[in-house]
Design goal:
- The protein contains ten helices and 23 strands.
- A hairpin with a 3-residue loop joins strand 13 and strand 14.
- The longest helix has 20 residues.
- It is globular, with a radius of gyration of 22 Å.
- Bound molecules: flavin-adenine dinucleotide.
Length: 404
């Protein structure tokens, strides 16, 4: 497609759940003659990150190549790794496809930053050397290979009692009942859930013969064990799930970032320091209901993508800004393929007494995962398309004027 000189150039970096959703939504909102949308990603396929524990235990995930997903949408794909951003000069440095020369600087008028996050070892000694992560595909595939090679009775320890930890431990124990699976949690198992939800989680752990080491902090990881504040736990394989950390790219710029390195944004996901930059998903520091920062999740991340896309479209076309604030409804937890837990929550993510359990909950969670991937894989379907003209005033000037 020929780029028109007057086109407003939107670059979306990161094509995970949020970046891909934002690019697709922008394509639905804006006329191709007026706006070019480039989606930059390090990998050629969409990765269903919420299924990395499934990939790690040997399940095969459906391939979702971006060139098929975005065919005919007008979104240009640029495969490459983002290595830096000059937010003052408005360029993104992207590695060139293999064998085609050095990095390229792509210029933008509006940048959507959606690089997501990776695992965080929290600097616990030995974790980086000995533990496995399931925060992304490379880590999950390494763990998959390791699990395939171990003998029955091998002790496997999942560190972290949050959503990812309980999903990983139950998936492992269900698929590999021959292994000796344990989980180490800083607090009590499922202490963020309602009494009904926590009871159900304990029941599933008992049924799957997972040992829970509660109220224990891991202080070191070794090749054959983890050391905790309550003593050592044998671990031929350690799976680390204690939380995510964002990539350092944003922090290396003049963008305003929080202590976590996430980009500070307003209610429209626009950077508080650079009005032509938007941040979404795990990479954004967003105040949720009650001012509490949204946690890194698809549940809150995908709405931030919609919000950013709608806000960019509104600002470019002179229409009304979106006002729907992201909020929580439930936490959908898979506990293997046959069991699940849907914990209903307040707008700011605190458990209420209602929870759905059992096979129905497993099915519900599966539908949620499928729905999220479907939304990303079908970027121009679902909502009605309403492509509007960019206002005659040059968009870049308009954004700058608004910021003043
Ligand atoms: C095992 C697991 C289970 C989870 N379960 C749930 C769940 O049940 N519910 C829930 O709400 N959340 C869950 N999450 C969290 C959820 O996956 C993330 O919050 C979500 O993926 C964040 O979306 P994102 O678009 O911000 O980032 P990502 O989905 O991580 O996408 C980031 C994209 O940027 C690309 N990228 C990164 N760096 C670069 C670079 N330098 N250059 C180019 N491209 C780059 C990546 O390849 C990727 O495509 C789970 C996470 C894990 C790991």
């Amino acid at each position: 497609m020929q780029q028109n000189i007057q086109q407003h150039r939107v670059i979306v970096i990161g094509a995970g759940y949020t970046g891909a959703s934002a690019a697709g939504r922008l394509a639905r909102r804006l006329r191709r003659e007026d706006v070019s949308i480039t989606l930059v990603n390090a990998e050629a396929d969409f990765v269903e990150r919420v299924r990395m524990h499934q990939l790690a235990v040997g399940q095969d995930l459906r391939p979702r190549p971006f060139d098929e997903m975005f065919a005919g949408t007008g979104v240009r794909l640029r495969l490459g790794k983002v290595t830096g951003i000059d937010v003052d000069g408005r360029t993104v440095s992207v590695t060139a496809p293999e064998g085609t020369g050095g990095p390229e600087a792509l210029s933008y008028d509006t940048l959507v930053y959606a690089l997501g996050s990776a695992w965080s070892t929290h600097a616990v000694p030995g974790a980086a050397e000995h533990a496995h992560d399931i925060a992304g595909r490379p880590g999950a595939l390494r763990l998959r290979e390791r699990l395939a090679a171990v003998a029955p009775g091998t002790p496997v320890v999942v560190v972290g009692g949050g959503l990812t930890g309980v999903e990983a431990a139950t998936e492992l124990a269900e698929t590999r009942p021959d292994l000796d699976v344990a989980l180490v949690a800083r607090g009590a198992l499922g202490d963020w859930l309602s009494p009904k939800g926590a009871r159900h989680l304990r029941k599933v752990f008992t049924d799957l013969r997972i040992t829970a080491h509660e109220h224990a902090d891991v202080t070191a990881v070794h090749a054959d064990r983890v050391t905790t504040t309550e003593g050592d736990v044998p671990a031929a394989i350690t799976v680390w799930t204690t939380g995510f950390a964002v990539h350092p790219i944003a922090r290396a710029t003049t963008l305003e970032t929080g202590d976590t390195g996430q980009i500070v944004v307003d209610a429209t996901m626009r950077s508080t320091s650079h009005p032509d930059v938007y941040a979404i998903g795990d990479a954004a520091l967003v105040a949720g209901p009650g001012g509490k920062p949204l946690r890194m999740s698809c549940a809150s991340g995908i709405p931030t993508a919609w919000q950013a896309a709608d806000a960019i479209a509104a600002r470019l076309t002179g229409t009304k800004l979106p006002t729907t604030a992201p909020r929580y409804f439930n936490q959908c937890v898979s506990l293997g393929r046959k069991e699940g837990l849907i914990q209903y929550v307040t707008a700011d993510d605190r458990a209420v007494s209602a929870a759905l359990t059992g096979r129905v909950a497993a099915l519900y969670k599966e539908l949620v995962c499928k729905g999220a991937a479907w939304g990303v894989a079908n970027p121009t379907m679902g909502l009605p398309t309403r492509r509007r003209r960019v206002t005659t005033e040059p968009a870049r000037m308009k954004v700058a004027a608004e910021a003043a």
